[in-house]
Amino acid sequence: MPFSVIIADDHMLVRNSVRQIVEASPHFVVVAEADDGISAVAEVKSKQPDLIILDIAMPQSTGVEAIEEIRRWSPKTKIAVLTGMTAKKLLTLVFDSGVEGIFMKSGDPSGWAEDLKAVCEGERRIPDFILQFAEESPAEEDLTRRERQILFGVARGESNATIGDRLGISANTVDRHRTKIMRKLGVHSAAELVARAFRDGLLESEDHR
Questions:
Q1: DSSP state of 157
Q2: What's residue 32's pLDDT?
Q3: Is the confidence at residue 140, as pLDDT, over 70?
């Protein structure tokens, strides 16, 4: 029986190209597509696919957030990230999230089908340069999962109350986390915080996809 696949990318051209590659293999059947993070999570929750091929820079929900929600609602679904992002810290975050595969949009797609099949069968496919990033990344500089969630909310211009409602915590708790994040990153305002996060690759920038 072929592996069921969901393709999530906000660019139709990318989705169509990935679908062509996947459907050319007898090992896969595409059961849904999504063009934003929320839709991707909803489709996974509904379809419980064997594999999702996921962009990490989509509207509505960041890739790291979507990965966490996919794990929550469909823990057996394998996750293969397809990205054009090259920021060291962001790719390290994606690796640390435990995804089974990371594929670069700039790479040669000729071997993707076999690599995706291996991912579905329980193997992990991560480029060597990302493995090296992960080895070199000092753990003490990393933000916690909760801090990343709050940082993503700040980047979207959300208030403390809005972030708190989404995460199920109080606005005061969000404010305490923001203060700690700013101290970790050495900044003194929300604008500086977002600028530093993009500079360090902690957030996905639409200009570098």
A1: T
A2: 98
A3: no
Single residue among 136, 164, 188 that ends a domain in this structure: 136
- The amino acid present at 100, given as its one-letter code, is E
3 state SS of 8: strand
The CATH code of the domain that includes 21 is 3.40.50.2300
pLDDT for 47-76, tens place per residue?
A: 999 999 999 877 766 667 788 889 989 999
**pTM across the whole model:** 0.73
- State whether 151 and 189 are in the same domain: yes
DSSP codes of every residue in 31-65 = EEEESSHHHHHHHHHHH--SEEEE-SS-SSS-HHH
Q: How far is CA 126 from CA 5, 9, 48, 71, 88, in A?
A: 19, 20, 23, 19, 14
Range of the domain at 152: 143-208
128 and 161 both lie in a single domain: no
40 φ, ψ (degrees, to nearest 5)? -60, -45
Residues facing 132 on adjacent strands:
none
pLDDT digits (tens, 9 = 90+) for 74-116: 999 999 999 988 878 788 888 888 899 999 999 889 899 999 9
Residues 69 and 96 in one domain: yes
